[in-house]
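Service request form, structural biology core

Requester: graduate student, group of Dr. S.
Request type: structure prediction, single chain
Budget code: on file
Notes: please return the result as structure tokens.

Sequence provided:
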Amino acid sequence: MGEDRSRQGAQGRRRRLTSTDAKHRPSRATEGFFGRRHGKTIRPQQAIALESGLREYRIDLTAEAPGDLRSLFKAEVSALQLEIGFGGGEHLLHRAAESPAIGFIGVEPFVNGMAKMMTALGKAPLGNLRVYDDDATRLLDWLPPASLDAIDLLYPDPWPKKKHWKRRFVGAANLGRFARVLKAGGRFRFASDIDSYVNWTLLACRDHGAFAWQAEDAAGWHQPYEGWPGTRYEAKAIREGRRPAYLTFIRK
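Core staff response, request fulfilled:
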């Protein structure tokens, strides 16, 4: 989930981090939420699509965040939504295509997933979509307070070994980031097929205190979200006998 190469620039267009900024931002010294960055070598056509697509769609974190994030998009949008770890982009592309009035920001550090996304956008461009290809925490820290209407974290790396649980993306520090950038009443959705991560997330959100779980009954949180297109990860989980959970929290 995406890394900013922050540096000072000319004419005051680059962001200057003060000691106050540093004091109030969670440390990344021990944060490592994603694993490998590369899979199979991408094909030459994918490499071209990746390079040209990132030039058009990538958000530049070396520039200061605009006061109104809607200005990031070519299309006119009225709401803003973030998806962290979009994989091959199936869900994000579906949502962006069906909701042209929503501005979507997608984060994916895995090169192969981003190449697939840029290839798709090369064939069917979307003016309401931007991406970031590194550590999502840097993007979250760059965003202005109360600037997002929704955050989706769908099938994140579960880090199944107990000794690695501290690397799970859901935790006190990142829930604090979510609470800062979400508007009051904003939505945080989390989907996973790993029971220990589902329970972990429920407890983390309960302990954090800024989020209210929206389950109406015992079966409801196993129902996919409205308009859910399905993903490769979900299909694999179901084939292997795991039952996905779909949690929704509201920013208090």
